[in-house]
Amino acid sequence: xxNYQWYPGHMTKAKRMMQEDIKLIDLVIELVDARxxxxxxxxxxxxLGKNKSRIILLNKSDLADARKxxxxxxxxxxxxxxxxxxxxxxxxxxxxxxxxxxEACKEKIERDRKRGILNRPVRAMVVGIPNVGKSTFINSFxxxxxxxxxxxxxxxxxxxxIRLNKSLxxxxxxxxxxxxxxDQTVGLRLAMIGSINDEIIHLDELAYELTGFLRREYPxxxxxxxxxxxxxxxxAYETIKAVCVSRKCYLKGEELDIMKASSMLVExxxxxxxxxxxxxxxxx
Length: 284
Ligand SMILES: Nc1nc2c(ncn2[C@@H]2O[C@H](COP(=O)(O)OP(=O)(O)OP(=O)(O)O)[C@@H](O)[C@H]2O)c(=O)[nH]1
Ligand SMILES: [Mg+2]
Fold this sequence. Notes:
Elements: H1 9-21, E1 27-33, H2 43-48, E2 53-59, H3 66-78, E3 82-85, H4 97-104, H5 106-114, E4 122-127, H6 134-142, E5 160-165, E6 168-172, H7 184-193, H8 203-217, H9 221-226, H10 236-246, H11 258-270
Parallel strand pairs: 1-2, 1-4, 2-3, 4-6
Antiparallel strand pairs: 5-6
Helix pairs in contact: 8-10, 8-11, 10-11
Bound molecules: guanosine-5'-triphosphate and magnesium ion.
Guanosine-5'-triphosphate (GTP) binds at residues 59-60, 62-63, 87-89, 128, 130-136, 149-151, 153-156, 174-175.
């Protein structure tokens, strides 16, 4: 399996910038992808935000398994985080964040009041890996398009302060990954959700792993989506071939276009077309 490494120059800059800006911040709002809540957490953020109030947002919850979202909510609460399940694209769950921010920053607000500082806004840094939905979340929370978004990693390149209202200011940041994944499963899962550029990963390998996973954990979904039959003895590669045939992915003549079917499988998964799927569980 390939050794995923991806750390473009803008991420090195972003990390340095966050280390400087953290001094100005009361609260760290960390977005994780509900389909891979642990693999999508940058370990640097715990270090960076260790003396700050913390909120975790389980974003893209619409693409993940509803039952598993609940398990992950419990998991993060039990670790002492304030946590919310949201869909930044539609805004579902986003409204309740204001209350959670007040709750998470209770001590700061109290401290300000004792010093006679009234209405100093809470300053929150919005962090998370590339493509997790930081800018979309900010736009949805603000109710207007103030941050640029896009369906590929690396859209936000510099920081941007956004004043939401008189009590809250948000700092949008570029997504950062870590320079090297110790655990290859983490790299694989991040590639599956599209947080690592497709140029450096092998789509056929991703599709193979994904197909194996779906057959084990979500039996029936592939059959339904692609109108194929999966028999017990069949391996994941044969399942992809069946998708080729069903979706008429051919090179010249009768030769199957495995790459085309692979890319279709991965894209369908990323966009939630195969179903609501969570790739990892809290107890792993
Ligand atoms: N289905 C779904 N899609 C979402 C959600 N939030 C964001 N997206 C999509 O995810 C993609 C990435 O969103 P961005 O807001 O640009 O992500 P980002 O974290 O700012 O990315 P970088 O700036 O590259 O670090 C976009 O296509 C969004 O429409 C969500 O809750 N559900
Ligand atoms: Mg962004």
